[in-house]
Design brief:
Layout (H helix, E strand, L loop, with lengths): L3 E7 L9 H7 L5 E7 L1 H4 L8 H18 L6 E4 L2 H11 L1 E8 L4 H16 L3 E5 L21 H14 L42 H5 L1 H4 L12 H6 L4 H8 L4 H19 L22 H9 L5 H13 L4 H14 L4 H11 L5 H12 L14 H8 L4 H6 L15 H16 L2
Parallel strand pairs: 1-2, 1-4, 2-3, 4-5
Helix pairs in contact: 6-11, 10-11, 11-16, 13-14, 14-16, 15-16
């Protein structure tokens, strides 16, 4: 007879500690088989076989595997579509229940619906839990029971709710109800990918960084940010633990974590934003120049604006870009070059190690003035003034654009004042103003 088991399906929650769905699974009647599925539907959409995100995931799976081996268990990793993976598992085990954590993106919803339907047809339980955010879906609504579309009132209500509800902890690391077996994890090569050589940041943040966050966060040369975004993206750190760290220490750092919940909230309530549409639909009427030569120069860090070029070169080299610089380069692409924000969104999606659909889409729509923002299209960042304010000593620029004072460095691709006037005219025309 096949062994009766429950399955815990790791996705965006790649940790043993404080994992809500894993905790519920381990409390159940049946031993838990922990699985991860490398889904070809996702992998085949990646533009390169050297994608550091696959490498990061595999390293996180090895960390989980190490913990499981200590308990006489193992992680089962399957390279197949989710439906094929579950058919395979059903041939080996008598599956009683499937546990996982919520995933809010469109494809994830379709995928989970398909597996839930598969499970229901076989009398298998399917349970999913909130884990990657503090508040989700309809948990933070206005007094009129409508979703917030501006961050400040959302964050105010978010903090009110937090004060009323203690942060729940799910000590999944203390439970040991696992299926006993041992299996090796696949290699990067067997998945069709190659090593990138990128170094990944650690999954903890010092109290010194948090305490100095408000004063130092906007200066890219200082290295004064947590670098935890990739860990939040793949769930190798618990959002609950980070909020606990922030409370009473740094309101500014806490607000950054709330922004993350806010963009998930927007994605849930306004799904058209993930289908290539502006949050404010009237902005879909914009006429973009979309000059491919200028877009290539932006991608390669050859615009003649050192702060913009530094950011793009940092991104291309490391898969990371400082948040202040992300705003500068995004504003430059949209406002100076009049290139569709979706081109930039797509490029970031390809390059960012911490790529997250909700945050990436929200950030680009913010930059384009078509998203959730009280100050819409008329904000145009001046790269020169941004440099004077946030890289006055040019340390960040010298690191990434060492030739910026040499004759070989390109002249500015466009004049700032000219570009500013041009984009304002274009926006006014599109919006009928």
């Amino acid at each position: 007879m096949k062994q009766k088991i429950s399955i815990f399906w790791f996705r965006r929650d790649l940790r043993i500690e404080d994992n809500h769905g894993l905790y519920e699974a381990l409390k159940g009647e049946f031993p838990v088989l922990p699985i991860f599925i490398f889904d070809p539907n996702i992998l085949l959409k990646l533009n390169s076989t050297q994608d550091a995100r696959v490498e990061f995931i595999l390293s996180a799976l090895h960390a989980i595997q190490k913990r499981l081996l200590e308990q006489g268990s193992s992680l089962k990793v399957i390279h197949a579509s989710p439906r094929e993976a579950y058919e395979q598992l059903a041939g080996q085990y008598d599956i009683q229940a499937i546990y996982c954590n919520h995933d809010y993106e469109k494809y994830a919803g379709i995928r989970d619906g398909s597996i839930q339907s598969w499970a229901n047809q076989r009398g298998i339980g399917f349970s999913t839990y909130k884990d990657q955010v503090i508040f989700e879906k309809n948990e933070v609504l206005s007094g009129q029971n409508t979703p917030y579309t501006v961050f400040t009132p959302y964050s105010r209500k978010w903090k009110e709710r937090l004060a009323q509800h203690a942060i729940q902890v799910y000590p999944s690391e203390t439970l040991q109800n696992y299926v006993k077996f041992t299996e090796e994890l696949p290699s990067l090569g067997s998945l069709g990918f190659a090593n990138t050589g990128l170094l990944f940041p650690g999954n903890s943040v010092s109290m010194e960084i948090i305490q100095g966050y408000q004063a130092n966060r906007d200066f890219p040369a200082k290295g004064a940010t947590s670098r935890l975004s990739v860990h939040l993206r793949f769930g190798t750190v618990s959002i609950r633990s980070l909020v606990k760290q922030a409370i009473g220490v740094s309101e500014t750092w806490l607000n950054e974590l709330i922004w993350r919940d806010f963009y998930f909230n927007i994605l849930f309530h306004f799904p058209h934003v993930s289908d290539g549409h502006a949050f404010r639909k009237e902005y879909d009427r914009m006429e973009w120049r979309n000059n491919e030569v200028e877009f290539k120069a932006w991608c390669e860090g050859q615009t003649g604006y050192p702060i913009v070029d530094a950011g793009m070169r940092e991104l291309n080299s490391t898969g990371f870009m400082h948040n202040r610089v992300r705003m500068i380069v995004a504003s430059f692409l949209v406002k100076h070059l009049l290139i569709d924000w979706r081109w930039g969104e797509s490029y970031f999606a390809e390059k960012l190690l911490d790529f997250d659909l909700a945050a990436n889409n929200g950030g680009w729509q913010w930059a384009a003035g078509c998203g959730c923002d009280a100050a819409p299209y008329f904000r145009v960042f001046n790269p020169t003034l941004q440099t004077q304010k946030f890289d006055k000593e040019l340390a960040y620029i010298r690191k990434w654009v060492p030739e910026f004072q040499e004759l070989s460095y390109p002249q500015p691709i466009v004049n700032h004042e000219f570009a500013r006037e041009r984009v304002l005219v274009a926006y006014k025309k599109a919006l009928g103003r």
